[in-house]
């Protein structure tokens, strides 16, 4: 009898600690992943243009009274430098061009610490609404997180509900709608993102080479932006992407999409997910196979292997959208 009691006591203690551990793990996951446990302000502080890290980081506004315009949106920690070549080409093609600098970027990394994905969404929407009414044709082009913001604008201004405000078409390049998606897509691209909210309790920034952009490639040589990783902002983006992902079916406007199979920043399955979940009848998908390239195969608009192809195809796609 005593032996049975000992066994039961041991099993009881084991079960107790198993339940405690499971509860702790569940709490950590919920704290980091559940949108209903996360709130952030949509306030933002625009970057001080007198403190630009590089003259190429400055916003680009070319308003010449053309009948069509393109809003270019750069990615996380980046600057309008990402789209300077495309902006020049679009201006020559008689488009008005708007390339804003997202708040907190292009100056000093400390300016990023209080920024949020909600703030970037609000900022880019205000820019969009300021200029959209002036044009019959208005296109949005986004790189990386900028592509996510383009998707957000297309969701917010559905063609069926707000036809006068809907974009004419959008192009999204290497755009994420998830960072990790273990259960739905079998993707764990960046494991640390699962606990970045906890990491953010201890640091605003992790210094070092910006692992997102790799080494030795043209994308690095032309990159103008911050080095380091920002856990608070990664958490903010992660939650914001969940909401974009859930609303993809609202998008019915024409969409051009591009990504590299070997993208080491945004898992390639993002492209397929966007393609199969938007409701657009007019769409074009460009897949790049860059083989064993040394760089991260992410900043396609800066790479010699893909930049010209994307610009040419994208502009032809926009041109052929029924008006």
In short:
This protein is α/β, with parallel strands linked by helices and 323 residues long.
Largest sheet: 7 strands, mixed
* Cα Rg: 22 Å
Report the top-level CATH class.
Alpha Beta
Question: How far is the first residue's CA from the last residue's CA?
Answer: 85 Å
Mean pLDDT: 91
- Going by CATH, the architecture would be 3-Layer(aba) Sandwich
User: What's the tally of helices?
Assistant: 10
In one word, what is the shape?
elongated
What is the fold-level CATH name, i.e. the topology?
Rossmann fold
**Number of domains as seen in the coordinates:** 1
Content-based structural category:
alpha/beta
User: What is the N-to-C succession of helices and strands?
Assistant: HEEHEHEHEEHEHHHEHEH
CATH superfamily: Alpha/Beta hydrolase fold, catalytic domain
Side by side, the strands of the main sheet go: 1-3-2-4-5-8-9
Low-confidence stretches: 214-218
Total number of strands: 9
| Helix content class | 25-40%
Question: How large is the share of residues in beta strands?
Answer: 5-15%
Q: Top keywords for this entry?
A:
single chain; alpha/beta; Rossmann fold; two-stranded antiparallel ribbon; elongated
Write the layout of secondary structure elements.
Layout: H1 2-33, E1 60-62, E2 68-73, H2 84-92, E3 96-99, H3 117-132, E4 137-143, H4 145-156, E5 169-173, E6 180-181, H5 182-185, E7 187-188, H6 196-199, H7 218-221, H8 231-246, E8 255-260, H9 269-277, E9 283-288, H10 307-319
Parallel strand pairs: 2-3, 2-4, 4-5, 5-8, 8-9
Antiparallel strand pairs: 1-3, 6-7
């Amino acid at each position: 009898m005593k032996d049975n009691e000992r066994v039961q006591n041991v099993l009881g203690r084991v079960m107790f600690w198993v339940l405690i551990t499971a509860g702790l793990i569940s709490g950590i996951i919920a704290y980091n992943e559940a949108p209903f446990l996360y709130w952030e302000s949509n306030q933002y502080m625009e970057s001080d243009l007198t403190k630009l890290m590089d003259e190429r980081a400055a916003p680009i506004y070319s308003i010449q009274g053309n009948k069509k315009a393109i809003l270019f949106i750069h990615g996380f920690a980046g600057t309008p430098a990402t789209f300077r070549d495309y902006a020049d080409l679009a201006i020559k093609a008689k488009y008005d061009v708007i390339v804003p600098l997202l708040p907190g970027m292009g100056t000093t990394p400390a300016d990023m610490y209080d920024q949020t994905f909600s703030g970037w969404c609000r900022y880019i929407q205000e820019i969009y609404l300021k200029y959209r009414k002036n044009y019959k044709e208005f296109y949005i082009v986004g790189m990386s997180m900028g592509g996510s913001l383009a998707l957000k604008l297309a969701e917010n201004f559905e063609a069926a509900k707000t036809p006068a405000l809907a974009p004419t078409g959008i192009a999204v390049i290497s755009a994420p709608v998830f960072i990790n998606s273990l259960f739905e897509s079998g993707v764990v691209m960046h494991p640390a993102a699962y606990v970045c909210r906890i990491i953010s309790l201890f640091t605003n920034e992790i210094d070092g080479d910006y692992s997102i952009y790799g080494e030795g490639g043209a994308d690095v040589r032309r990159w103008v932006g911050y080095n380091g990783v920002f856990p608070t902002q990664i958490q903010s983006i992660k939650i914001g992407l969940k909401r974009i992902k859930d609303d993809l079916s609202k998008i019915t406007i024409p969409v051009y999409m591009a990504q590299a199979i070997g993208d080491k920043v945004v898992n390639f399955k993002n492209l397929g997910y966007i393609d199969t979940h938007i409701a657009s009848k007019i769409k074009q998908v460009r897949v790049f196979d860059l083989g064993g390239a040394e760089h991260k195969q992410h900043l396609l608009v800066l790479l010699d292997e893909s930049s010209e192809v994307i610009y040419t195809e994208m502009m032809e796609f926009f041109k052929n959208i029924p008006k």
